[in-house]
Structures are given as C-alpha cells and as structure tokens.
Write a structure and sequence with these properties.
The chain is mostly helical and 172 residues long. Helix content is 58%, strand content 8%. Strands 1-2 form a two-stranded antiparallel ribbon.
Length: 172
C-alpha cells in the first residue's frame, strides 16, 4: 500500500509541473498579489474565449499564405501578443461566469488591472494554447487546402484542441 500511495503522490506532483506561472520582473507583493490572484481565477473560465481570440488574431496575421513555415512561425508567437491582450479585458458576469471582451472606454481600467489581466491571458495562453501548436498548424493548413472560412478555422481549431465545444461562438 505505501508504494501505491508514493506512486500516486509522485504522479500528482508530475501533473502539477505541466503549467507555467509567469512572474513579471517587478512584483510588489503588497500591491500586485491580490490583483494577480483576482484575474488568475478567471483563467479556467475563459479558455474558449482566449483560444478564439488568439487563433483569430493569428489567422488574420497569417493572411492567405499556405506556406507551412510561415504559418508555423506565426503560431510559435501565438501567445506573444501583448497589444492584443491589452485591447481586451476579463469581465466577470457572475460567479464562475467570465468572458473576454474588447476593452471598454468606460469604466476605464487602471494600469495595474490592465497589467494583470494581460498577464493572466498570456499565462493561460502559454499553458493551454501554445502546447497545441502542431494541432493548430495542421488545422490551419487543412483549412487553407479546403478553403474553410475564417470562422470555420477558428471554431474548428479551438474545438480540435478541446478548449471550445463545436457550438461555441463568441464575438471578439
């Protein structure tokens, strides 16, 4: 029995290593920690929105190319889009009900909020979207060959990597 418990504990420990937690160069525990945790709790609930946002952005950046190397170069940078994150915000609509929306003019977010919302989106992207880079590339190439619409590529990619259901659709 102790071996089984030890093996289970070891596997549980390995599973926890799969995620990346990013920390900015400057971090003040008195002002940043609470804000960081506030937006980190949204991550689980916005996986589909973030997938759709980053895949749509990448689709627009790639343009009409069918060159596998060009597509892969863009997908390698799929999460490195600070301006995209900054132009969107995390909105809590209720308990466990979050979405990513275009940043609103009013009420205006503080610089601290923008920083940590962007951070939460980047961290989530690095953990759940970037590891699927081969699947994303394959879906993009397949979509180009079969002349899928922009929406079909976005929806298909995000459902293929299991971040959205096949019926999920949001306006980002």
């Amino acid at each position: 029995q102790p071996r089984v418990l030890w093996a289970a504990a070891a596997l549980a420990g390995l599973r926890g290593i799969a995620a990346t937690i990013l920390m900015p160069e400057e971090f003040n525990v008195n002002t940043d920690f609470e804000e960081k945790e506030r937006w980190r709790k949204a991550q689980y609930h916005v996986r589909c929105d973030l997938c759709r946002l980053t895949v749509a952005h990448t689709f627009d950046e790639v343009g009409s190319t069918a060159n596998e190397d060009d597509i892969y170069d863009h997908i390698e940078r799929i999460c490195k889009v600070e301006a995209l994150y900054n132009s969107h915000e995390l909105l809590e609509k209720g308990p466990s009900n979050w979405e990513i929306i275009k940043a609103r003019e009013e009420p205006r977010r503080s610089d601290l909020t923008v920083r940590w919302q962007t951070h939460a989106m980047r961290e989530l992207c690095d953990n759940v979207i970037l590891p699927n880079d081969d699947e994303i590339k394959d879906y993009f190439l397949n979509g180009r060959r079969k002349k899928f619409s922009r929406e079909a590529v976005i929806s298909g990619t995000c459902s293929k990597i299991k971040l959205c259901s096949k019926t999920s659709k949001s306006e980002l």
